Every structure is written in C-alpha cells, then in structure tokens.
C-alpha cells in the first residue's frame, strides 16, 4: 500500500510540541540547548523509540532518528529541520520540518514500505543562533565547517556557556547512540515555512527553494568617555551614543532604500553603564545583513565599517566591529529541486521556484550531499514572531510533498548511484 501522510497525527504533534516552551502570546521560547529544547528532544526521542526507530546523537548534539532500509550499507537519505526557536518564536519555524520528517517515517512504517536505503530524520542543534551565536552550528559542525570546540566558550545573554549546555543536552538522552560528526548521507531535504509573504500572496501551495541568500552578523561597539549628564557640556563630550545613532541613521536611510534585495537589521542594542544620568562609555549593537549576491553582501559590510569609522571620528570616539557569522549565499542541487517539482506535479500542488531570505541548515548540508528545500506558506509571511501561523492544509500538503520527494529521491538516487 502506498504510504500516506496522516494529517491529523501531524497536526497533533505540532500542537504537542507547541506546548513545550509555550509563551503567553501563543508562540514558543525554546532556545537552543535550553531545558525547553531538551524537553522537545526528549519528547521526540520517546515518540520515535515507541515506533521502533533508533536514535543517534553526534558531538554537537544533532539528533538523528533512523528507519532502516533494504541496503544498510548505503548512506541514508536525510530529512529534517530544527526544534530550537527564537526567544519569541513561532510554533512552526523548524518544528514543522522536523515533525513532518518524522511523519514521513511513520507513514512509511504504517504502510510497511521498504525503502532502498535507510531514511533518517535530523533535528539540527542551534539553527537560530539567538541564544548562542552564530546560528546553524549543528549543520556547520556536521559538514566540517566548524568544530564543537570552536563554540564551547560562547556565552549566552543569560550567562550560560555553550559547552556546559551542550554537555547537559547530550547527557539528557543517554539512550541515543553517539555517532561521529558528518556521517555520510545520500541527499537532504528540508521542509520549512517560507517566513515571507509571496506563496500566500500568489495562492501557491509550495516553494521549490533553489538557493539561500547570504548572511553576516556584526557586533559594533562605539567607545567614548563616561560622564555626568548634567555637568558635561557638548565641547567636553565623547558620547558613543551620538556616534552610534548617527551611524545607524545613515545606514538605515541608505542600505535598504537603495537596494531592494538588501536587508539590514539591528536586533540588539545596549549601553554601558546604562545609567539614566551618566553619559555612556560604550554602546554596542548587532547588525544582521543579508543579500543574495556575495559581492553586494561584502559591499554592505564595507559600507557599515566606513560609516561607523566616520561617525566615531566625528564624536572623538573609537569603534570596534567584529563578525560573528558569515554564511555565503549558495544554491541547491537541480537533481533535488527536480525531484520536488516532479512530486509537486504528481500531487497537483501549485508551486514556484524561489530563493530563501532566511538562512537554513540546508545551505551547509548542500556542501556534502545533493540538497534542496520545500517551503509552505505562512500567514502574512510572519515569522520570528509569536503569531506565526500555518494553515493546517498547508502543513499537511508540505508533509505530503516531503514524503513524495523523499521517495522520489531514495529510489532515483539509488538508480544514479
Ligand atoms: O535568521 C534566519 O534566517 C533563520 O530563520 N534563523
Ligand atoms: Mn528555521
Ligand atoms: Mn528561525
């Protein structure tokens, strides 16, 4: 019998996981390697074990769920996403792709359908990067673009160390078999919400994601002299706040208005000592920049550096800028996007090709195996917001498309290989 997605079961899973880290506004706060993240991993491990699947972890706590196939010597096909969320995240960002991938395994199991090779579900560690920067640490380590040791000393805003939280997370699933980083895979597919408005606006059911734009994260610190708010006249001030706000104003009035494809976001802003009646001595903010073109991304960073230097000089301050994340733009495999298209046509799901505005683990995974992504619409394109919402039909169609494209890939990749 042909494997079919059980939509009710998927929706139930999504609402069960949405209870973990649930916020008052109906979103989730399940930040990487937090107790909430560990609770979600525990629930997934219990559910998959109950279905007879095996659970693995690697040194950066990427979580793998394996359903055996006919030929155990062949690399498994990998599908999945992430379970960690933004601090005020939505119920579907990452969770949809991870739970739909689990639903694929369950649909195969229900139909007693043997696949030519094993299929594995992955929940990548720390996709978001909001608690511990940078993001996509799990997939970076999986493809050898970084090592867990590179991140152990990273400290979160709540004062926790990545190394300690990683150890606690690994220890929380003692039944998971440890496996080396970078276990070979035959291909990777990730289902994710679009996190943008175009699919909904165009009335489409799916996006065949062909590429992901580039991302860079900068930390900018202006330094001046602390001083008394009441007694220090303008001539005696070296105020980093004036430098920072004038730099930001110039950048926000130029970067995005001059280039439709450019994105510039200041998500964090802090001052030291942060006293109402003291001129600050340090002002620090983060900048998240994005662009589909690598040269344009580099040009935006260069402009940020130049404008900040000028602003610092104008206030007799200094400025330091560090880069904590650099994910170049990249494209996915046409073999895999063709498989998704074939599956979408077979399911009569209207789709279009698109580039992802958000970064994803799939971009790093595409360095080691044929990879592509499937997007489904989310309401008003809203994400990284507690009101994030996906129509049940879109979630179910996304899982159906993931199942069909996975079966397309497992069979055909075996033919090619
Ligand atoms: O920020 C991103 O692009 C991803 O959603 N974490
Ligand atoms: Mn995501
Ligand atoms: Mn996200």
Question: Characteristics of this structure?
Answer:
elongated; binds manganese (II) ion; alpha/beta; binds (2S)-amino(hydroxy)ethanoic acid; 2 domains; 417 residues; Aminopeptidase; 13 helices; Alpha-Beta Plaits; 5-stranded antiparallel β-sheet; disordered C terminus; 10-stranded mixed β-sheet
> Major β-sheet, in short?
10 strands, mixed
Whole-number tally of structural domains: 2
Small molecules (ligands, ions, cofactors) in the structure: (2S)-amino(hydroxy)ethanoic acid, manganese (II) ion
CATH class of the largest domain: Alpha Beta
End-to-end separation in angstroms reads 26 Å
Put simply, the count of helices is 13
Protein architecture, described:
The protein folds into 2 domains: 7-212 and 329-411, Zn peptidases (Aminopeptidase, 3-Layer(aba) Sandwich), CATH 3.40.630.10; 214-327, Alpha-Beta Plaits. The protein is built from 13 helices and 17 strands. The chain has helices at 7-18, 35-50, 95-110, 137-142, 148-151, 162-171, 198-201, 240-252, 255-258, 294-314, 334-346, 361-365, 392-416, and strands spanning 54-57, 63-67, 76-82, 119-124, 177-178, 185-193, 206-212, 214-223, 227-228, 263-265, 269-272, 278-279, 282-291, 318-327, 330-331, 351-356, 371-376. Strands 1, 2, 3, 4, 5, 6, 7, 15, 16 and 17 form a 10-stranded mixed sheet that branches. Strands 8, 10, 11, 13 and 14 form a 5-stranded antiparallel sheet that branches. A two-stranded antiparallel ribbon has the order 9-12. Helix 8 runs antiparallel to helix 10. The two termini are 26 Å apart. One manganese (II) ion binds at residues 86, 93, 128, 384.
């Amino acid at each position: 019998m042909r494997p079919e997605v059980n939509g009710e079961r998927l929706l139930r899973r999504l609402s069960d996981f949405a209870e973990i880290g649930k916020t008052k506004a109906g979103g989730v706060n399940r930040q990487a390697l937090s107790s909430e993240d560990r609770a979600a991993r525990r629930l997934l491990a219990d559910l998959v074990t109950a279905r007879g699947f095996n659970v693995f972890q690697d040194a950066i706590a990427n979580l793998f769920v394996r359903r055996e196939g006919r030929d155990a010597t062949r690399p498994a096909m990998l599908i999945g996403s992430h379970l960690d969320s933004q601090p005020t995240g939505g119920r579907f960002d990452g969770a949809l792709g991870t739970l739909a991938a689990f639903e694929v395994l369950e649909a195969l199991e229900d139909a007693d359908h043997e696949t030519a090779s094993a299929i594995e579900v992955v929940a990548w560690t720390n996709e978001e990067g909001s608690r511990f920067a940078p993001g996509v640490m799990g997939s970076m380590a999986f493809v050898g673009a970084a090592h867990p040791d590179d991140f152990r000393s990273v400290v979160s805003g709540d004062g926790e160390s990545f190394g300690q939280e990683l150890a606690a997370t690994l220890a929380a699933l003692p039944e998971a078999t440890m496996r080396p980083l970078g276990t070979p895979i035959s291909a990777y597919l990730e289902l994710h919400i679009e996190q943008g408005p175009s699919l909904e606006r165009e009335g489409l059911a799916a996006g065949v994601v062909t590429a992901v734009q580039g991302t860079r994260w900068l930390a900018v610190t202006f330094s001046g002299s602390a001083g008394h708010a009441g007694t220090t006249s303008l001539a005696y001030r070296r105020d980093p706040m004036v430098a920072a706000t004038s730099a930001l104003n110039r950048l926000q009035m130029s970067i995005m208005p001059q280039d439709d494809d450019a994105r510039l976001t200041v998500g964090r802003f802090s001052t030291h000592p942060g006293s109402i009646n003291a001129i600050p001595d340090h002002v620090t903010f983060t900048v998240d920049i994005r662009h589909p073109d690598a040269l344009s991304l580099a040009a935006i960073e260069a402009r940020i550096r130049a404008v900040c230097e000028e602003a610092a000089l104008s206030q007799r301050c200094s400025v330091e800028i560090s880069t904590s994340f650099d994910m170049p733009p990249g494209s996915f495999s046409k073999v895999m996007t063709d498989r998704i298209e074939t599956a979408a046509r077979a399911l009569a799901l209207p789709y279009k090709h698109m580039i992802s505005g958000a970064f994803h683990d799939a971009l790093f995974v595409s360095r080691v195996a044929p990879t592509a992504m499937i997007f489904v619409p989310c309401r008003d394109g809203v994400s990284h917001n507690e009101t994030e919402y996906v129509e049940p039909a879109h979630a179910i169609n996304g899982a159906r498309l993931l199942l069909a494209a996975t079966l397309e890939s497992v069979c055909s990749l075996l033919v090619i290989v």
